[in-house]
Specification:
The complex is a heterodimer of chains A (about 400) and B (about 230).
Chain A: H1 3-16, H2 18-55, E1 60-64, H3 68-73, E2 86-87, H4 88-95, E3 102-115, E4 118-127, H5 129-135, E5 140-143, E6 153-156, H6 158-163, E7 176-179, E8 182-190, E9 205-208, H7 209-215, E10 224-225, E11 227-231, H8 238-253, E12 263-265, H9 267-310, H10 312-320, H11 325-360, H12 369-396
Parallel strand pairs in A: 4-9, 6-8
Antiparallel strand pairs in A: 1-11, 1-12, 2-10, 3-4, 3-7, 3-11, 5-8, 6-9, 7-8
Chain B: E1 7-20, E2 23-36, E3 40-44, H1 51-58, E4 66-71, E5 74-75, H2 81-91, E6 92-95, H3 107-117, H4 122-135, H5 151-163, E7 169-173, H6 181-196, E8 200-205, H7 208-213, E9 216-221, E10 224-225
Parallel strand pairs in B: 3-8, 3-9, 6-7, 7-8
Antiparallel strand pairs in B: 1-2, 1-4, 4-5, 9-10
Chain lengths: ~400, ~230
């Protein structure tokens, strides 16, 4: 039997069973629609994150008092607290590394803040304003940024100013926020960056390093800090600097490389961590879509098995009049493949409509024809795979079946 | 009955054994049978006689457990599944009790099916199908589907389908079993006419009336052929 005739026979049969046809492909339509929509979403997410990562300051390296092993294995969680302390001694040693142009000590701890009778606990960042401005891309929306000489003054992130104390109580410049009961004057409100990663400027409350020392006098030693941010000039070879930092820190903390009680976080490390997370997200999305496709495939399988049973006599007749097992196999495989293909085309169309609607409602998604083509091709393959066992069963039927009268 | 024309189909020592648990059941037991060119034969026997098994052997649908089957000089028992399918499609025309038209194909497509499977020239096949259908009075209904036809019409389409590849033998299984007596008689007349034109026809039946119109009656009892 010629392939063209096999195809026309299979298509003809599908046309004759339209109700079943639509019911069967519904699963694939939904499955492929979700694959297309989720892949597009995943891609948009990736692109968005990539954009934000590139807006991070690429020339800043952070040293944090978290054991390297915990951070690298991902077992660190913010509730665990710090595994060691960073000291003035560390900072002084790091200053000696020639490539490092600026060094900014940071205290980052939680305190109670009050504004217009609203009390809450939030993170306060104690920074060295002059250097901090160099290592973070800070822009001010209202007022001015902190100066090293400021006392009992704070800067607040754009989002925090808007929402932290309730949407009806936005923070205004020159008003006062109490930190652990001491009034701080709001000296500047930062421009929103829209960023999700890094130092999270949008949600922060910033005070000077010396004020932070005062606020957290009970919990942090005189010579201690939580993070050291180090700036290097544009184009510096990062790996070498990171090595130098580790050498100094190992000596200062008197630790061997495999028992480091601190971590060095450079842009490459952040990109790598984010990449890992994104990979997991993509796999997760893929798994969800995969499950719905498996269900769609099972629907095709079930329908094809039913079809083989119903058409036992027809298969017998085909064989009696000369069709080989191979012909029968091809007919049923093609029917299943066509079911998958039809489901794929419609599912992809539906998925693209969902993506388009998502775009209208502001999701940063874009119709990707690569994903669309993949959706259609994948559905075809799912159809073929689902049809394999039913087709095999059909091909194995004996031509004698044509003569069995009792149905 | 003496036959002087050559045998186009020969069964030599054909047996078919089925296993029922530990027991061996002989559906056919060492059958010898020659079908001659121009035969109009009926295979007659009660149910359980081995008649259906003989039909399967004659139609090359099921291989025998022992013995050989020759069709047009070919020892079919030595053919592969593919070779067997080709011989079946080209040399045997089947007519079934349930008509067994393909419901998704129209009259013309049903008739053309064996030729399409055999990969014959599509233009010639179509012409031939139209001629055959015209001859049996179905020329006006080429695009009807089987469910739009009466039983008699369906069986006529099935006969046209059996003729499309110019087979050596037409094998009909209870062809009148699902038809009223008038339509059945018409179908039998058609067989006679085809036989007059030289076609070799074997009708498997349990109906003695059908057997009356055939030139030759092959009686099957307990897996054996009674002397004609």
């Amino acid at each position: 039997m010629k392939t063209a005739d096999v195809i026309s026979y299979a298509v003809n049969n599908l046309r004759h069973r339209q109700t079943r046809f639509w019911l069967t492909i519904l699963g694939v339509v939904i499955g492929i629609a979700s694959v297309v929509a989720l892949l597009t979403l995943g891609q948009a997410f990736n692109a968005e994150v990539g954009k934000q990562l590139s807006s991070l300051n690429g020339n800043t390296i952070y040293v944090v008092p978290i054991a390297e092993s915990a951070l690298q294995s991902g077992s660190f969680s913010p509730t665990m607290g710090y595994s060691s302390k960073l000291t003035e001694n560390d900072a002084q040693r790091l200053k000696k590394i020639p490539e490092i142009t600026d060094i900014s000590r940071v205290i980052e701890r939680r305190a109670t803040v009050s504004y217009k009778d609203v009390n809450l606990t939030t993170t306060i960042d104690g920074i060295e304003p002059a250097v901090f401005q160099k290592v973070s891309s800070i822009e001010v929306a209202e007022g001015r940024f902190l100066l090293d000489s400021d006392h009992h003054a704070l800067g607040i992130g754009g989002t925090a100013a808007e929402k932290m104390f309730g949407a009806d109580k936005p923070v205004a410049v020159n008003s006062y926020i109490a930190i652990n009961g001491v009034n701080y004057r709001v000296i500047g409100i930062l421009k929103k960056t829209g960023g999700t990663f890094g130092s999270d400027l949008d949600n922060g409350i910033f005070v000077t390093y010396s004020d932070a020392k005062e606020i957290f006098a009970n919990s942090i030693g005189k010579n201690e800090m939580d993070t050291i941010a180090l700036a290097v000039p544009e184009g510096t070879e990062m790996a070498g600097v990171v090595e130098s930092i580790k050498l100094e820190m190992d000596a200062s903390h008197k630790v061997k490389p495999d028992e480091r009680d601190y971590s060095v976080i450079d842009p490459a490390f952040i990109a790598q961590s984010v990449g890992t997370v994104l990979g997991l997200v993509t796999i997760f999305l893929g798994a969800i879509a995969g499950i719905s496709l498996i269900v769609g495939g099972l629907a095709i399988s079930t329908s094809m098995f039913t079809s083989v049973i119903e058409r036992t006599q027809e298969i017998g007749v085909l064989k009696a009049v000369g069709a080989t097992s191979g012909d029968i196999m091809k007919i049923f495989l093609f029917e299943a493949g066509a079911l998958g293909l039809a489901g794929g085309v419609m599912g992809t169309a539906l998925g693209l409509v969902l993506v388009y609607i998502g775009g209208v409602f502001g999701l940063p998604v874009q119709v990707d024809f690569g994903i669309a083509a993949f959706g259609v091709a994948f559905a075809f393959v799912v159809g073929l795979l689902s049809g394999f066992f039913p087709a095999q069963r059909a091909a194995a039927l004996s031509p004698v079946e044509a003569f069995r009268y009792d149905k | 009955m003496a036959q002087h024309s050559k045998a186009i189909m020969s069964l030599k020592g054909v047996s078919k054994v089925y296993r029922m648990g530990e027991e061996k059941v002989y559906a056919l037991n060492g059958i010898d049978l020659d079908i001659h060119e121009g035969d109009l034969a009926s295979v007659l026997g009660p149910s359980g006689s081995g008649k259906s098994t003989l039909l399967n052997m004659l139609g090359l649908l099921d291989p025998p457990s022992a013995g050989s089957i020759f069709l047009d000089g070919i020892e079919t028992t030595k053919l592969s599944e593919k070779g067997l399918a080709a011989v079946r499609g080209k040399k045997i025309g089947f007519i079934f009790q349930m008509f067994n038209l393909i419901p998704s194909l129209n009259v013309l497509q049903n008739v053309m099916l064996p030729a399409v499977i055999y990969e014959s020239d599509p233009v010639k096949t179509r012409q031939k199908a139209e001629i055959v259908l015209g001859r049996i009075g179905m020329g006006e209904r080429l695009l009807h589907f089987p469910n739009q036809l009466s039983g008699g019409q369906r069986q006529r389409v099935a006969i046209a389908r059996a003729l499309i590849n110019d087979p050596e033998i037409i094998l009909a299984d209870e062809p009148t079993g699902n038809l009223d007596s008038k339509t059945g008689a018409e179908v039998l007349d058609m067989f006679k006419r085809l036989n007059d034109e030289g076609k070799t026809i074997i009708i498997v039946t349990h109906d003695a009336h059908v057997a009356k119109i055939t030139k030759r009656t092959i009686r099957v009892v307990d897996g054996k052929i009674l002397k004609e």
